[in-house]
Structures are given as C-alpha cells and as structure tokens.
Design brief:
This protein has helices spanning 4-11, 16-21, 44-50, 94-100, 112-130, 137-148, 151-160; strands at residues 25-28, 31-38, 59-70, 82-93, 166-173, 182-190, 197-206, 213-214. It has 215 residues and is α+β, with helices and mostly antiparallel strands. The strands form 2 sheets. The protein has a 4-stranded mixed beta sheet with strand order 1-2-4-3. Helix 5 (112-130) packs across helix 7 (151-160).
C-alpha cells in the first residue's frame, strides 16, 4: 500500500470489500510491529485516511488503541505479531507538526525559520532516543510529550541558542504515583563547551488511561 494507485483504489467506496480483507500492519523502523484491528466497520476510514498517495520518511502515524494477544498464524499469512484494537489514528508529517507548535511569545519573527528547524530536529531526536514501539508506560509517555507538549520545543530552542542542545530523554516513575500511574519524562541539555549537563527539564504524564494527561 505504498503507491498513489493503491490509495485511490482503496478509497473508492465500491472497493470497500477489498479493505475488509486486508491485513493492516503498522511498521516501526521498517519492522512489522503491530496488526491493526478496527473495532467496527466505520473504523476502516481511520486506516484508509492513514494511507498516503506519496509516503515520505517524515510521515508519522500515532495509533491509540488496546494491545491484545498475538495474531494467530492463519489470520495474516503466518504473521504472528501483537494485535491492537484501534480507537484513533492521527496521521501527519514532521513539517505539519512543527507548523502547529505555538511560537514562544518573545521569539523575534526573523527567528521563526530557525525555531522551525530546531523543533524539527528536537522531534527527530526524541523519536530516535525513545527507540520505542509504544508497548510500555514509559514509551507512551515519551510519545505523548513529543506530540502534545509544545513547551518542550520552545525550551529546546532557548537552550540551543545558549549552545546547549538536547542530548538525552529518560523516564522514571513519578513519586506522585499512587492509585494512578504517573511517569516523569526528563530532558537533558548538554553544554557543548563544557560537556556538562546544562539543564534538566521534566514533564509528568498520567498514563493510567488509554488517553493520557499532562500533570
């Protein structure tokens, strides 16, 4: 499903029967990771909308759903990977995300392009450092912050201007965790001149429910 023809054919309502027969596989870093299962017929539109006429390396698909058991071999040509019951899919590319990030109020207009470049680099860094498939609370907390917490991009731009780029993303259980599961996502910025940690910044994310909340 990587050509404009495939996308056009499957989007035709007359070909909906083909859509029902397909195996919908989510690949992460080129590896077949999850088999996506729509909860009801209407959810097929979520999967269809995730198809792109011309895919690029900067495409991002954020899937929210419930992780299930391994798919039986007979289900999809012998492929046995975890199934995910899909509730929502957000599809966008890196540039669209960067454009949606609110600019810091004190950012001069002439630095807008620089901010966009920094935000794009930070997003890529977070995704590469995370090295995750969304299978754990820590993974999901990092993914949530990357797309739902714009303040981190403003902070990264501010510190990069001080020659202290983002160098690490870590997670740990919050001391506030009790009945609810709360994860601290910690961002470390290292000064290039001294090689010392210049600043650490953290965000608390409540991952108890399927849809997360910033604390």
């Amino acid at each position: 499903m990587k050509t404009e023809v495939d996308q056009k054919v499957l989007s035709d309502p007359q070909n909906r029967y083909l859509v029902r027969q397909l195996c919908w596989i989510m690949a992460i870093e080129g590896l077949e990771t999850y088999m996506l299962i729509p909860r009801e017929t209407a959810d097929l539109d979520l999967l269809l909308n995730a198809l792109r006429p011309a895919p690029t390396p900067w495409d991002v698909d954020l899937v929210i759903g419930r992780l299930g058991s391994l798919a039986p071999p007979a289900m999809c040509n012998g492929l046995t990977i975890p199934m995910v019951a899909v509730d929502q899919i957000y599809s966008f590319d890196r540039d669209a995300l960067v454009k949606s990030i609110p600019r810091p109020k004190d950012l001069p207009e002439k630095q807008d392009k620089r901010f966009a470049a920094t935000a794009g680099t930070v997003f890529e860094t977070i995704m590469q450092m995370a090295d995750n498939a969304g299978a754990t609370d820590d993974h999901r907390a990092v993914n949530y912050v990357a797309v739902r917490y714009p303040a981190i991009y403003g902070k990264a731009a501010e510190l990069l201007a001080q020659d202290a780029p983002l160098t690490a993303v870590e997670t740990r259980p919050s001391r506030l965790s009790g009945v609810r599961k709360i994860v601290d996502v910690i961002f470390s910025f290292t000064n290039r001149q001294t090689a010392d940690i210049s600043e650490r910044w953290f965000v608390r994310v409540d991952v108890t429910e399927e849809y997360h909340l910033q604390q």
